[in-house]
Amino acid sequence: MLLDDVLEDLRHVENGGRLMDMPLAGRAADTIEMLLEINQAHEEKLAYYKDLETQGRLKVRPPVEGRKCGT
After folding, report:
1. What is the pLDDT of residue 45?
2. Which residues of 29-48 are buried (b: 16+ CB within 10 A; e: fewer)?
3. pLDDT at residue 69 above 70?
4. DSSP annotation string for 1-54
5. How is the chain split into domains, by residue range?
6. For residue 10, which of 65, 35, 1, 27 has the smallest C-alpha distance?
7. Would the CA dihedral through 2, 5, 11, 13 be positive or negative?
8. Alpha-carbon span 28 to 64, nearest angstrom
9. pLDDT tens-digit profile of 13-68?
10. Has residue 4 got a pLDDT over 90?
């Protein structure tokens, strides 16, 4: 997985086992950008659901042990 590889490379840099070269820096930057985009999408989705709940169109309930959605 890309994230695991980047984290492993960065740990080698942190421990002094590797220098931060341009390809590694580029991969790290790309991975961070991807994670920021995913985080932004999650924040937008949560804001959407919060707005629906505020309008009374959605009720968010805590999970009930042993029960799943639709049961």
Report:
1. 95
2. eebeeeeeeeeeeeeeeeee
3. no
4. -HHHHHHHHHHHHHTTSS---HHHHHHHHHHHHHHHHHHHHHHHHHHHHHHHHH
5. 2-54
6. 27
7. negative
8. 40
9. 878 877 878 888 888 888 888 888 999 999 999 999 999 999 999 988 877 777 76
10. no
- What pTM value is reported for the model? 0.62
Q: Are 45 and 26 in contact (CB under 8 A)?
A: no
**How many beta carbons lie within 10 A of that of residue 9, not counting itself?**
19
Q: How many whole angstroms separate alpha carbon 24 and alpha carbon 31?
A: 11
- At 59, the amino acid letter reads K
